[in-house]
């Protein structure tokens, strides 16, 4: 089996590459990644010498480069993780989100049509459903919940999902889509809530919580997400959407307090800053479909996952310290300097 994994130098994509190479020693995994600010080749260092792995630096929007790779590798499956993924950046500058997340998806699927494929899998997000009110804990996103996006990021992901379903209906492309809740774990880029709070707490810097910090996210350990995608690409029904979530809802402020406690840092570091524009209140996934059809359940309890994650950031300081000392520093100052 030849699998092209786009965005494999990012957070979830790299965890997926490791998972697949370990679980399927007879598969060939080809990572296609543009290495944007969020892609990091050092993340893939542990597998660079694996004969079943190949890294190719290219943009998913570059039709010629994508076609060339398909001609060389004849992939059976394409799993598309490549995306601009940070909501705050999409609010500052939506253009690149439309380019990568929408146009890039169509370029990949055009190559799948042209060369033939067993499966195209789109890694999507629960954010396409918009948000739920805080006072209705009985409500969850199902696969039938209407698309109702809030940010340029989620709108670009929703547009891509609609294109994926259109390519299935119009051209018969064998597609699947997974819509997952917030992931956490190793190699999470330090602009995102959990790694940002770990890095700042370790440096005794303020912990910037947007607004009151009452917004709820449904946190899933990244390995559990990778296992869900593995099941979907092998056994999921073509043309279907699968929601993936942890039944693990937590308010942002709870998460930040847990991190302070685990690291032995004072909660006085918590600083309430201006809220995110259009900030979604609550995400909550109903994962009944993937459980009933494919037997998937999250395996990592949050209490264990967060401990493992914090330990990983303590053990791999060089990885994230290199990142936060570079271009990211300018972004951070721009974002938080004016809040
Ligand atoms: P990330 O930002 O950590 O990584 C994105 C990767 O894509 C990087 O390696 C980057 O270099 C690459 N990339 C970006 N633009 C590209 C382009 N034009 N061509 C080729 N490569 C490009 O993102 P992540 O958090 O790992 O998310 C991966 C996917 O999962 C995204 O599609 C995201 O929408 C989705 N998702 C993420 C979460 C989450 O909690 N992080 C939850 C649900 C869904
Ligand atoms: O400094 C911060 N302070 C803060 O209060 C940051 C970075 C975030 N937040 C809040 C905003 C959100 O309510 O924490 C919550 C989580 O924020 P992010 O880590 O930016 O994630 P989110 O916006 O929920 O989106 C993530 O999950 C869904 C991923 O980045 C998306 O790619 C994925 O689709």
TrEMBL record:
Family named by the database record: Belongs to the NAD(P)-dependent epimerase/dehydratase family. dTDP-glucose dehydratase subfamily.
Reported cofactor(s): NAD(+)
A Pfam family hit: GDP_Man_Dehyd
Keyword Nuclease attached: no
Organism whose genome encodes this protein: Butyricicoccus intestinisimiae
The EC number(s) this enzyme carries: 4.2.1.46
Enzyme class at the top of the EC tree: lyase
GO MF, one example: dTDP-glucose 4,6-dehydratase activity
InterPro entries named among the record's database cross-references: dTDP_Gluc_deHydtase (IPR005888), NAD(P)-bd_dom (IPR016040)
Domain NAD(P)-binding: 4-309
Keyword Ribonucleoprotein recorded: no
Keywords: Lyase, NAD
Reaction catalysed by this enzyme: dTDP-alpha-D-glucose = dTDP-4-dehydro-6-deoxy-alpha-D-glucose + H2O
Protein name: dTDP-glucose 4,6-dehydratase
Domain of life: Bacteria
The encoding gene: rfbB
Phylogenetic lineage: Bacteria, Bacillati, Bacillota, Clostridia, Eubacteriales
């Amino acid at each position: 089996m030849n699998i092209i994994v786009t965005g494999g130098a990012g957070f979830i994509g790299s965890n997926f590459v490791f998972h697949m190479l370990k679980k399927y020693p007879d598969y060939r995994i080809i990572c296609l990644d543009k290495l944007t600010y969020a892609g990091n080749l050092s993340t893939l260092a542990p597998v660079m010498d694996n004969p079943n792995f190949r890294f190719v630096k290219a943009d998913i929007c570059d039709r010629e480069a994508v076609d060339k790779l398909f001609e060389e590798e004849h992939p059976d499956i394409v799993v598309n993780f490549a995306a601009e993924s940070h909501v705050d950046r999409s609010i500052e500058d939506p253009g690149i989100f439309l380019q990568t997340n929408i146009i890039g998806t169509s370029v990949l699927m055009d190559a799948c049509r042209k060369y033939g494929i067993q499966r195209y899998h789109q890694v999507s997000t629960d954010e396409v459903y918009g948000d739920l009110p805080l006072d209705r804990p009985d409500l969850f996103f199902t696969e039938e919940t209407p698309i109702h996006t809030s940010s340029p990021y989620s709108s670009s992901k929703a547009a891509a999902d609609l294109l994926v379903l259109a390519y299935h209906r119009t051209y018969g492309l064998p597609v699947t889509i997974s819509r997952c809740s917030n992931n956490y774990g190793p190699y999470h880029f330090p602009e995102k809530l959990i790694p940002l709070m770990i890095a700042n707490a370790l440096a005794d810097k303020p912990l910037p919580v947007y607004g009151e910090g009452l917004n709820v996210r449904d946190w899933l350990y990244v390995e559990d997400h990778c296992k869900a995608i593995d099941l979907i690409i092998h056994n999921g029904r073509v043309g279907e959407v699968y929601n993936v979530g942890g039944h693990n809802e937590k308010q942002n402020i709870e998460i930040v307090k847990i991190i302070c406690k685990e690291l032995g840092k004072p909660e006085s570091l918590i600083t309430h800053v201006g809220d995110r524009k259009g900030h979604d209140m609550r995400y909550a996934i109903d994962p009944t479909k993937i459980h009933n059809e494919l037997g998937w359940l999250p395996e990592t309890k949050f209490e264990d996952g967060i401990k493992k994650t914090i330990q990983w950031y303590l053990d791999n300081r060089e990885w994230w310290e290199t990142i936060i000392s570079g271009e990211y520093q300018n972004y951070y100052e721009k974002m938080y300097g004016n809040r």
